[in-house]
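Exercise: predict the fold of this chain.
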Amino acid sequence: MQTDVPVVDLAEWQSASADRRGAVAAELDAALRATGMFLLDGHGVERAVIDRFRAAARRFFALPKEIKAQYAIEAAYDSGWLEMHPGGGVGVPQAEGTTDAPPDLHESFYIGPGRDADSSGLDRYYYPANRWPSEMPELRAAADDYTAHMLRVAHGINEILAATLGLPVDFFTSRATEATWTQNASWYPSLNAVGQVAAGQLRNGPHTDLGTFTVLSRQLGVGGLQAWNEADGWFAPPFSPDSLIVNLGDLMERWTDGRWRALTHRVLGPSPTAPDEELLSLVFFYESDPETLIEPLAAPVGGGRGLAPVVSRRDVLGKLGVSLEAV
């Protein structure tokens, strides 16, 4: 059953023998071919760091709407606050004859590796300036601390993925020296807070992520995360409060020419069986250097689907409706 999502220990991997790494890689490869997800232990992110960021983000979402609106995103590539997300989900087509899905029931606050407030040209799209709320300086401090760990963890994940494919250990890391990324804090309000849920309305509709992989710190809930694969359909992945979830995105599926799959996932709507349940996820979307040419790997490393090459950040932005042809 591919619902048996493997657990990879980053600290163990870094000191493991070749035989042990081979065994871990075989299990990981099978899971990434079928589902696109694994759990990560031994990541070295202290619980206090996670809790501090989650608590600061929750205080931001509790601010009055008129204050949060001062930090609203202004474009699809932007950083800042987003009140409601469009339904449907990128990468998941609507069924024939259906209308637009209702809005997803969550708010998000986006940050990235913004270089400075005067970013122009391509940097405006690759490294947009962050909007830090002046009312909450502790949010920036907590987010910076957490994302420093995410960048370290991402480096380790890239090395594991390269080794699993039998590639040089720096295959992905050498193409991620100035990687684009987005750190997202997403708040899923309770049923009592939203008052009513439309038929089929979810906290986050079915979708795949756009980058190479995503690192998720989540909370367990009745209206929580579900993953999908062809063998099992929708299922609730295992939860451990000390584990991070890693799921592959569209760029990694393309890079491996379909050997591995981008994880299709969703977050269920708030449940009447838990009307006070609210959840807050910390979601780190990782890509590569923005101008990296993602050339699908040839068989037998690649999956042989014959996918076309794309430029990393341009592909992500194109799926968000942003064209850089004139930039």
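Check your answer against the key: The first strand starts at residue 7 and ends at 9.
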